[in-house]
Structure formats: C-alpha cells, structure tokens
Amino acid sequence: MSTPAPASFYEQVGEHEFRTTPATESPWDQRMQHGGPPAALLARAAELARPDDSMQIARITVDMLGGIPQGRMRTEAEVVRPGRRVELVQTRLWAEDKLAVTASVWRIRVDPGLTTAYETAPNLPDLPAEQPQRYFDGVSPDWGYGRAVEWRFVNGGFEQGGVADVWARVRISLVAGEETSPVCRLLVVADSMNGLSIRLPLKEWLSIPPTLNVTVQHPPVSEWMLFHAQTLIGPDGIGIARGQVEDEAGFVAEIAQPLLVQPR
Questions:
Q1: Domain 8-110+132-263 CATH superfamily
Q2: What is the longest distance spanned by two Cα atoms in the chain?
Q3: Cα gap 261→264, rounded to integer Å
C-alpha cells in the first residue's frame, strides 16, 4: 500500500455538505464512489431529520440514479409521513449540484419490553484469524473502499466469487470527527452483496445494481457483522444479489438488489 488510509469516508464542510475521501472509491473508477458510503450518508440524514433514539430505521431503499462522482456532496431529508410509532423519511444526495441518489426510509419505534420471541444467532462460525486483504482481479491493493473495511472470509472470496460467508467490520468513521451509528455501519457494507458473491468475471461482464433494499430487524451491536451473500443470474440478463446479516446478538438484516448483467 503506497498511501495511508483515510480516517473517514467523508469530511463535513457545511451543515449538510461533505467532501469525499479516497475511502469512498469504486473499485472500477477512482472518479466514482462505491454505493455503500452514499447509502450510509443518506441513512445518517434520515436519523438526523428528527433525532429520536427510540425510532429505528427498519427499512431503507436506496436508488442510485447513475454513477456517483467524487467531490462535494449535499444531503437533504424530509419527514413525509410523520407518526408517533411509524414515520417515513425521504432523503436525497446531490453530487456537485446534480441529484445522484435518493432513499426512502421507514423508521419504527422500538419497545424494549417485547423480547420474549426474539431468537439469538445460532452457531455462528468463528471469526477467522486476520487474513491478507485481496480484492478483485485487476483491482489495486490501494483500493480506497476495500481498505476501509476489513474482510475475513469463512467461505468464498473476492477472487473466486460465488456464495460467500464473510465477517466484515468498518475500520473508519462515516463522517470525520463523529461516531458512526450502527445502522450506518451496516449500510456502508450492505451494497457489497453483489461484489462478495459475483458469479461472472468482472473484466468481461457488467453486474450493476441500480438500487439497494435493506430491511433491518435490529442494528448491529458490535463492530463485526457476518454477511451471507449470494448472486443469482436469470436467462434474460437480470440478476439478484441477496444476503442476510447476523452478529453475536442475532439476526440483523436482509439485503436485496436487482442486477443488470451484460457483456462489457
């Protein structure tokens, strides 16, 4: 690695304005961002739209309107369906004054007393020892986003593709100088389901997810999260990347993404 890793994905330069760091880099084009950090930034905007620790993000749908360029970002958030128990927040991310990403976020009020039917995680595989951090064929070991997350595979791997079980933890903060919320940490990695379980060589095939849907049962309670990732490809050029997330406290979330699959 020729350069030190950034301390955050974004640096705040205004009340709702941010500047990207190299940690947001797409593996295929350094001028663009990986989808995970922008998704997390919109989850952060939803959490701050009406701060209330008892209102949990239960579902977020992130729509990427094209490639998300590096540079100056601006977020907007609006509570469009207020409620005492359930609310809907719409958020938008502007990249250099162009609308780049939108998100629809449902928040549900939690009740700590309703725990009698909750199931803890059964027989999770042990966290493997530290592993060499290798990425896709042709991707530099200096890849910003890859270095910002630590990956420890139980099954699969970036180089081999297919079904994968991988422990992951986010090494750096979402926004410089502030603690990242548990759901935002989840969102940083959630957009990686396709990459973790890719089925076709990316030098020859496009595999593009235009949207990300994450349904959250409970926020992760520790830094390490276990991702079960699978990519399915149909006969007509449409695929699905899907996954489940667990941690030491139990089931965390379900993730699903449609895929455009075409030859390059």
A1: Acyl-CoA thioesterase, double hotdog domain (2.40.160.210)
A2: 53
A3: 9
